[in-house]
Design goal:
alpha+beta, three-stranded antiparallel β-sheet, MetI-like fold
């Protein structure tokens, strides 16, 4: 076939030239259109919902943080209420039947005696009379969030009765009430610490990743110096610097600053490595040529591209903050009474003999384990969902 004949024959056309029918077979279904047009955050949420363990962990975390808003109401007693007749009293059992009859939730009175051989206080239940529990009742007075006086409690003991669901400590204080109050401090210190660490990581990681050069080298050397110190001894040294004369509130914020100062380095390195790759992308160059300032390029174009990954990383860092505060307070160099946290409560259970005789004093370790596992499972789910296209 010569060139003239080849030019005369039109090339085959495989694309349909019929007008597009939106309702035809080529059209996207409503479900497909919903998926293809969804934002990255919505895709992340859909994928997170399929991670059942992460969803359950998220619900547990939400409930535990919700309790911090009404700790005074949930606690049967006020934080510092003492019951000198019930020192080291064991946990009481809530019963529903008395002498074969249903009378609702109640407790029996505790009768104390002194064992002259072991010199230990021993408690027995007096089953002759039930003490029904009261709900949404008036009990110990407290200042709600330190603002106004109130006395409403979710559950209270009967008049003349007791309600020590987790026993009492060496001063006769209800352990369960103190754990509920301590939840507010232990959980919020993790959020405040990670908020500060997140800010430091974004700022220094963003500067190092965008500018590079000697600025990057300087920030990386600072990070390496900070990471070269063993964490626990450094925590101990910095905590010991806090003056004993400081108020509990200042000590609380001081411990938060210490934890945040030591936890921003990992996040800063993650931000730096990502920005080093993204700063050479076409849309970054286009924004630079259009006159956008570095601050706007980093905040509006680079960071949103992997913010979901940063949120997942921050979620996984919160348990480290909580464990850090618990460890410092357990060693006696963190938060101090009258501030009550899980670490402060565990500090009272350092003596092995006390734990052997009164094991309920170890109860504060249970919420620590639950919250750490919940954060780890929820963080794993967020990390998997952060890449919804995978």
């Amino acid at each position: 076939m010569n060139a003239t004949a080849a030019a005369a024959d039109p090339l085959p056309h495989f694309v349909s030239q019929e007008p597009f029918d939106p309702s035809g077979s080529d059209a996207l279904t409503a479900e497909q259109e919903k998926f293809y047009l969804a934002s990255q955050w919505k895709l992340m949420l859909w994928k997170l919902r399929r991670h059942k363990v992460a969803v359950i962990s998220g619900i547990v975390l939400a409930l535990m943080y919700a309790t911090t808003l009404v700790s005074e109401v949930l606690a049967p007693y006020y934080l510092h209420s003492r019951h000198t007749d019930y020192i080291y009293a064991p946990p009481q059992q809530v019963r529903f039947f008395h002498e074969g009859k249903f009378v609702g939730p109640f407790t029996y009175d505790l009768v104390r005696s002194l064992n002259m051989e072991t010199l230990r206080r021993e408690y027995t239940e007096d089953t002759s009379k039930p003490y029904p529990l009261r709900f949404f009742c008036s009990g110990d007075s407290y200042r709600f969030w330190g603002m106004f006086e109130a006395s409403l409690h979710l559950a209270c003991p009967a008049e003349g009765g007791t309600l020590f669901l987790a026993g009492t400590d060496r001063l006769g204080r209800d352990v369960l009430s103190r754990v509920i109050y301590g939840t507010r401090i232990s959980l919020t210190i993790g959020l405040l610490g990670i908020a500060l660490a997140f800010t430091l990581g974004l700022v220094f990681g963003g500067i190092a990743g965008y500018y590079g050069g000697w600025i990057d080298n300087l920030i990386q050397r600072v990070i390496e110096v900070i990471r070269s110190f063993p964490e626990l001894p450094l925590w101990m040294a910095l905590s010991a610097v806090l003056p004993v004369t400081w108020s509990p509130l200042l000590i609380y914020f001081g411990i938060t600053m210490i934890l945040a100062t030591l936890h921003w380095t990992n996040l800063a390195r993650a931000v730096r490595s990502k920005l080093l790759a993204l700063r050479e992308e076409d849309y970054t160059t286009a924004a630079r040529l259009m006159g956008a300032k570095p601050k706007r390029i980093i905040a509006r174009h680079l960071l949103p591209g992997f913010m979901s990954h940063l949120i997942a990383a921050a979620t996984l860092s919160i348990p480290g903050m909580i464990l850090g505060e618990t460890a410092l307070s357990f060693l006696g160099i963190g938060l101090r009474p009258p501030i009550t946290s899980w670490g402060v409560l565990l500090n009272e259970a350092q003596n092995v003999n006390v734990v052997a005789l009164y094991p309920w004093l170890m109860l504060p370790v249970v919420p620590v384990i639950v919250i750490i596992l919940a954060f780890n499972f929820f963080g794993d789910g967020l990390r998997d969902a952060a890449d919804p296209y995978r």
